[in-house]
Amino acid sequence: MAPLHPHSGDPVFDLHVGGKMEIVSTVALNGPDELSLAYTPGVARVCEAIAADPSLTQHYTWVPNTVAVVTDGTAVLGLGDIGPAAAMPVMEGKAVLFKQFGGVDAVPICLDTTDVEEIIETVVRLAPSFGGINLEDISAPRCFEIEARLKERLDIPVFHDDQHGTAVVALAALTNALRLTGRDASTVRVVVQGAGAAGVAVARILLEAGVRDVAVLDRQGVLNSERSDLTAVKAALARDTADRFGRRGSLADVMAGADVYIGVSGGQVPEEIVASMADDAIIFGLANPTPEVHPDLAHKYARVVATGRSDFPNQINNVLAFPGIFRGAFDVHATAITEGMKVAAATALAELVGDDLSEDLVIPSPFDPRVPGAVRTAVAEAARRDGVARR
Predict the structure, then answer these.
(1) How many angstroms separate the CA atoms of 317 and 324, rounded?
(2) Are residues 293 and 169 part of one domain?
């Protein structure tokens, strides 16, 4: 007898048989009366009401609680450019996380194009069906332009999670790590290795949170205005980071005496460079599955260590952020997700640790039941403060 599927017996593949999600009706259809209310002729009355007042979409459809999870498959996990078809299992997984941790419905959409203009135009045309857009696994630097231009054209939240989800959780963990080691954001020295989507966003949110001395590196070294090879995004970041303190050179140059290392590059940091950091250092090696600094090595020189993995303490996991961020934004019908809303989410996550703060607990677990509510409330309040809430 042939196997049920080509990888039958493998628990990972067995879990994915048929996909990981389905559409479930919220209304019963047990007879003609219910059918006439849910569909024709009753549904026509609702359609006419929305045509006369489009804001009624917020009350009589699933739109205000539904996110489009959009990718082109060019930067999927650590797998890289594997295309839209192969990206679908990840997008389904993202949708399941939205529902499980935020009560938000999500629809995975894998686009068969990598053209910036085509992606933007496609999402704009799909937007009336959704309350928010979660961009996912789109490679840099295209992801920056796509997000920025969609924000300009749409009046619903647009959020590239690879950038901002990582940044929010990293800031939350760093906030507690600084508290644990007696450091102040305004004087701490931070090195961010990697100037892709996550690296740029991490640097930006650190600046927003009051960190002043940040050096960001790509493969050619520290981003600074003396370099002629920088994209517009990197050039702007250079002016706001390394230029302030004259940081230049290689990773070895800026790691000597640094307080904090945040890796989002996937490279490996030699031990002698790790050893050159300040006492009681903080090391976040976030590449998966192989951190830039393995925890066993990091613990020889650092007091606080975090990774992106679930099998070590202090996992920097985006699921701590994005479900609650969208949930809070949807609660107040926000038109956008602001920097203030992201910082508020990070602050809420950091505060949940409270008196349990220790070297092995600077960030809550993704399964801490308090997380979604805390992030949701903080984001909604920040949306009102920032003037993007519609209710």
Answers:
(1) 13
(2) yes
Res 2 pLDDT > 60: no
pLDDT in tens, 157-194: 999 999 999 999 999 999 999 999 999 999 999 999 99
**69 bridge partner residues:** 108, 134
Q: Given the residues 94, 151, 234, 342, select the one marked as catalytic.
A: 94
Number of structural domains in the chain: 2
pLDDT digits (tens, 9 = 90+) for 320-346: 999 999 999 999 999 999 999 999 999
> Does the global pTM surpass 0.90?
yes
Within-domain flag for 115: no
Cis peptide before 313 (omega within 30 of 0): no
Give residue-wise pLDDT tens across range 34-56.
999 999 999 999 999 999 999 99
Q: What is the mean pLDDT of residues 5-11?
A: 81
The C-alpha angle with vertex 127 and arms to 329 and 105, in degrees rounded to 5, equals 50
Q: Does any domain span residue 261?
A: yes
**CATH number of 261's domain:** 3.40.50.720
How many residues are recorded in the chain?
A: 391
Look at residues 125, 119, 124 and name the one whose alpha carbon lies nearest to residue 145: 119
Structure tokens at 264: 């989002």
Catalytic residue at 94? Answer: yes
Q: Does any domain span residue 361? A: no
The two tokens of residue 339 are 């920097």
- Non-local (6+) Cβ contacts of 181 within 8 A are 259, 280, 282, 303, 304
Domain of 179, in residue numbers:
164-307
Question: Is residue 324 domain-resident?
Answer: no
